[in-house]
Specification:
- This protein folds into two domains: 163 residues, no CATH class; 115 residues, Arc Repressor Mutant, subunit A (Orthogonal Bundle), CATH 1.10.10.60.
- The chain is 52% helix and 9% strand.
- The protein contains 17 helices and eight strands.
- It has a five-stranded mixed β-sheet. It has a three-stranded antiparallel β-sheet with strand order 2-1-3.
- It is of the alpha+beta class and 361 residues long.
Length: 361
């Protein structure tokens, strides 16, 4: 039985548009940078085109360096539009209220973005709702802009829907206050909380109930049906093993590894039933856990700048030493040796494709 390969995630190339506009707004030509990442006009106009999460983070980091603006993500967010989220965004733009638009945008997130770390959520109560973006810690110069652009983007997209300026009642950000912390304050009517337990913003009931003047009930229902169909196609998995692999990603972090019982609970199955069904598929929970860890480890080492200690933490190892021993057992290489070999391959690939203008996504 061949095992599915784990990827860190990808997102629609529509997210490149506000990045390019932000670069231009800061007085720089974005085209040379975009071409370096294989993002020419043809690629950006390709239906359903996706960009890998690591490549997007490297692109954002390069854009910040080009502009000398660490708050680039905030500029990007203010320029975000619902249509850049593809079918899910177009559907949200037909919602009857701002709250339904937010719920729709986050519910159908897999149609425009996927990350093994988790997914965004809309958590409503009687007084309002939290729009939550999952953790992508540890934070560094490559990924803070992602949180900035998403949270700011949600507010900008929803405000444009009703043509009404809106502020969050509360805004919580997982990383510590950066040097540009004051630039967040216009987004929120209260003090922004940094170093929080998660990334989320709060909208009050009155804001959620703002009517969308562009709402057409029949178009709204048609678009919802299309989203449901595409969602089913994208999220359909073929085996129990694949379902477990998808579950393991968000559960692996913090120096601990999830057990079979925890996963069985998530799947709403007795542990013995889960064990039996996996045996019928010719695999075991421990094998799936190790395979997932190995695939994620290779992707992190190859595609990110994270230290081996940070990778060990994200994969549920008690220490960097335990991770390095496991990686050597899996691949025959140390993590450092694997990173060096992959960078040599990457440099050779860039050199060979420079003449043809080809770049991987």
């Amino acid at each position: 039985m061949s095992r599915p390969r784990v990827r860190l995630g990808d997102l629609s190339v529509g997210f490149v548009q506000p990045l390019a506009e932000a670069i231009q707004g800061l007085g720089h030509d974005p085209q040379p940078l975009l071409r370096r990442y294989g993002l020419d006009e043809t690629r950006l106009a390709e239906a359903g085109a996706r960009l890998s999460i690591p490549r997007y983070m490297h692109l954002g980091h390069a854009a910040i360096a080009l502009c000398g603006e660490p708050a680039l993500g905030l500029h990007m967010g203010r320029l975000s539009r619902l249509a850049q989220a593809g079918l899910a965004g177009v559907t949200a733009a037909q919602a009857p209220t701002l709250g339904e638009a937010a719920r729709t945008l986050l519910r159908f997130e897999p149609l425009y973005a996927a990350n093994y770390r988790g997914h965004s959520s809309f958590q409503e109560d009687a007084q309002g709702a939290w729009l939550r973006f999952y953790s992508i810690s540890p934070y560094n110069a490559y990924n803070r802009f992602v949180v900035d652009s998403l949270l700011t983007g949600w507010l900008a997209q929803l405000a444009a829907l009703t043509d009404t300026p809106i502020q969050a009642e509360r805004l919580e950000i997982e990383f510590e206050a950066p040097g540009y912390a004051a630039q967040y304050q216009p987004l929120c009517s209260t003090a922004v909380q940094f170093g929080a337990s998660g990334n989320r913003l709060r909208l009050g009931r009155a804001t959620l109930e703002l009517a969308n003047p562009q709402h057409c009930p029949s178009t709204w229902q048609h678009l919802l049906q299309l989203c449901e169909t595409h969602m089913l196609q994208r999220t359909r998995v073929r085996s129990l093993g694949e379902r477990i692999t998808h579950l393991l990603g968000p559960l692996l972090n913090g120096g601990r590894e999830p057990g079979l019982e925890e996963v069985a609970l998530r799947l709403q199955l007795p542990a013995w039933t889960l064990r039996r069904k996996l045996a019928e598929e010719g695999t075991r929970f421990r094998d799936l856990l190790n395979d997932t860890r190995r695939d994620l480890a290779e992707a992190y080492i190859r595609d990110t700048e994270l230290s081996f200690g940070e990778i060990a933490y994200l994969l549920g190892f008690a220490s960097a030493e335990a991770f390095q021993r496991a990686f050597k057992r899996w691949t025959g290489l140390t993590p450092g040796g694997f990173r060096r070999s992959q960078r040599q391959v990457g440099q050779s690939s860039v050199a060979s494709s420079a003449g043809s203008g080809v770049s991987s996504s």
